[in-house]
Amino acid sequence: MSHDASPPGCPARVHDSASGLLLLSSAVGAAEPREVYRALREEWGNVARVELEPGVHAWLVLGYHELLAMVRQEQVFSRDPRNWRDLNEGGVPPRSGLLPMMSWRPNVLATDGLEHRRLRQPLDEVVAKIDQRRTRRQVEAMCRDLIAAFSGRGSADLVGEYATIVPMLALGRLFGLDTAGGRELLRALASPGGSADSSGEGDRRFEEILHDTMRGRRTVPTGDLTSAFLDHPNLATEAEHLQSMAVMVSAGNETVTAWISHTLRLLLADPRFAARLHGGRLGVDDALDEALWRDPPVNNMPARYALRDTELGGQYIRRGDCLILGIAGANDDPAIRPEDGGAEPGNRAHLAFSSGPHVCPAQVPARLITRTAVTTALRLLPDLRLAVAGEEVTWRPSPWTRVPTALPVRFTPVPAAPVPAPPV
């Protein structure tokens, strides 16, 4: 089928670039991305041609089963961007905003096979050592402090004043940083989900903070994750220690911010869903999972690179082609989506954490942090409500992560707790 015109009976073409292809960031930033992905599926099928930025093309894998097949075949679809033909041939500009997420780095994200397993094992084992009860108490205390800073006003931005801050403070604490250190990490971290224009200085400062933390733990080991990475026999060099820490912190920051934001937005903007929660028919974990089905934090995840000519979803894939995991589209695939479009309570078959060898290793702490942030906000601000219509919420520009620019809310002001008088 030609893609120069809409097939008879199909919706209008979903493109907005000179090439006639969909620019991926326009889907992530749409009011309802699922409608864009559905139109794209109508036009192309389960594997669609898109633009990552003007002139840089890729395949977006929208089919649930096609996505699983791709991520489980690392002998055909590599995670290593050194196999990306367009990058090797100069088709990606040196200052492209794609490179923070898609350039090669010597870490677990860009490896396959035995090397990937060697670098992945420390992540799995270190995450398994997290004391969940202690972490929950620490995160709850952080959330209470953040809410106390704005609860007397009766209004707040739950993204800028809450959801953006909680993950980095929580991750910083896991690695042995105090609140001031966590906030410094947050300031330094140039989000890889956005532009690369000013990321260099922030990235350098981010790595300096991690280096300083590593040096301190070599002198005085503790029970935090920094010490655990330094002690792991699979990590042989300082660079491997640093990259393992950087992957966990940077990958967990914006995704958990998005998950907290989406869950709160779902509960505030969908009265029927909120009524089911408050009526006891659903739990907070059901709301967390519904948010992952409807609006996964990473709508589209880079990337896999074809190691040979092959076929996927009826499309001819050439060696060196770039393929993007269309997680939001795959979650909405008619082959697995319930007719009413909602998820059954307890169904965690979504692809928000990917699958295969590169499945997210930190699902448990991510859920713990998100659940604690959501439940604490609902408990301390019981009449929380959106200050704008749900459809008026706008989104940070990105082809990857879907994070609200703001989530303005109102609530009954809560007087600050009185400060105890000093003893006489």
Automatic annotation (TrEMBL):
InterPro entries: Cyt_P450_B (IPR002397), Cyt_P450_CS (IPR017972), Cyt_P450_sf (IPR036396). Signal peptide: none annotated. GO terms for molecular function: heme binding; iron ion binding; monooxygenase activity; oxidoreductase activity, acting on paired donors, with incorporation or reduction of molecular oxygen. It comes from the Bacteria. PROSITE patterns: CYTOCHROME_P450. Belongs to the cytochrome P450 family. This is Cytochrome. It comes from Streptomyces tsukubensis.
